[in-house]
Amino acid sequence: MLKIIVVVLSLLVALPGYALDGAALLKQIDRNLSPESFEMYRKLINVEPDGKKKEFTLYSVKKGTEKIAALFLAPASEKGRSTLRLGENMWLYIPNVGKPIRITSLQSVIGGVFNNSDILQLDYSAEYDVEKVEEKGGEYLLYLKAKTKTVAYDRLKIWADKGKLLPTKIECLTEANMLIKTLYFKDHKDFGEGLVRPSVIETDSPLFKGYKSIMIYAKIKKRIFKDEVFTLTFMANLDSLR
Amino acid sequence: MKRYLCLVILLVLTIFFPAMGTAEDTYKFDLSETEKKPFHFGGYIEFKPILFGLDRDSAFYKLRFFNDPQGQTLPEANGRVQLEGSYEKDIYRLFVKTNTDLKYSDPSGSSEHSVFYEAYGSLKPSTSLKIDAGKKTLKWGKGYAWNPAAFVDRPKDPDEPEQAMEGFIVGTMDYIRSFDGPLKTLSFTPVILPVYDHINDEFGNSNKLNFAGRFYFLLYDTDIDLMFLTGGSRSDRYGVDFSRNITTNFEIHGEYAYIRNARKNILDAMGSMRSTESDAQSYLIGIRHLTTFDLTTIAEYYHNGAGISDDERGNFFALVDRAYNLYQTTGQASALNSAKNLADGGYGKPNSGKDYLYVRFSQKEPFNLLYFTPSLTWMMNLDDRSSSLTPELLYTGFTNCELRFKTAFLVGGKGTEFGEKQNDYRMELRIGYYF
Q: Which of A150, A235, B251, B420 is most enclosed, with most CB atoms within 10 A?
């Protein structure tokens, strides 16, 4: 009898977890972070252990689930560089080099803790499947596994606020669950058109002890671009969209 | 005096440590930084002292210094100023980029050379169409060190493959279409390149209107270009290139060029020159690989179908030796001057041989040293087995400033391409500042 009671109680406790549709939850988190197609400005700051900083300003455009491009506006040494991502393909255009070259998601065009896939982030639901969802107090904890081997991080653990359905922390892990970096989402801000989301993402990594990188968001606006914007030939002309 | 010293120290700290602060600072994003202005002005200045370690037995040393012998080393000071500006209004844009090279060395004195790298106007009626007219660099091809299919570009310097280059006066446009399916992108870039007196006259035969074009496809996640050039200033040529990621961290690329009736000046063993014409094929195959610990490897094999053979190069060096001996015994420099003309015409140009291998390793931020990238580049002439080895240290930690220390060691026996160059080694420091 006691065994039956324990089994029934266990099922009752577990049921809310099974009732959660992880995929739908992740899609909602994606939409709460940004519209599907938009433009935005970001500042990236690399902070060294001695406090020395290096800053980059980027203009980014995204369309759908697999197209995103970013243009460096500052500093002067990086101005005019642009990066393009079409699904698993990534390119870097350097004005002096004059033609796009293929890059990989794990590289970093700016140095520091953020790599190219962090800068050219697609929707999480486009790259990851939800393995399970747990409830931790006021937060959901989503366990994500990459859909393909080409995704930068094999696994993600996303802590998301239950009420706002926005991430508060993301751990990026290898297949063997080794921590590569942690992203902390901070400072909620109203960007207009109903978009309220964290305006600052801080990251640190056990691979870069003492270093951290910060991404500050501004002017996130829904905007639909033509597909031709997300092509190698257009990379040199991204500034004309501003 | 102390006040001036303090001001200088303050200025240096402002330039090199502009964003010094503590990690606990509040992070701010001033939105005025995102405002777009119709005018843009920027540039780059560079100071580059070089020390050449001379090889006084080499052919190119004899050609340059036969009447002005040097010591073991030769210092040289170089400077570069690049200015660029643009004005954009609606669908119109003007862009200008200038380059000034300054050089000072003891035997040659000082020199200055200024040129417009680019100066063109653009019309952009839609995201699918852009029309440019003026001086412009096009930079075709997928190779890192060489681009045999870059039909409307100046030759790239494999020692400095990422440097800005001077363009040609062209009329060109980009037409882009995107699709769903295996073919994701198609673009077409036609080019008109006139060659007349004072217009692109270094491109080839004068009084010709040349046509070139490039079709680009992103097909099955592979970049593919087809290109052509015709018109008479240079012999007709057709090319194809591709680039594809085999895995996320492993890229493969290649280029192929078929050149009809390629002209070539051949030097025989007696020192007589004759001109030949025959079809030539040049190609390149390369890889780019990134390890999990951020070591990037670039490796390329290049076959230059119209290049100088090992025997032809040997004939040239024998000619220089004979001319130098004649000068030493009689004081006559005419034969050496003829050899100098041959060197300028092709025998002295970088990578003028037939088969080369290029390997570059660069390690990003080793030992967690942010913005520090050491690299090692090895280039070999596969026909005569001579080579150059170039270690390099790059630091970009100061905002807008680039510090690069580079050395090059040339290895090769007598009669080989790298063995007969003017230097045994070269050391250079490059301090660059962007504004």
A: B420
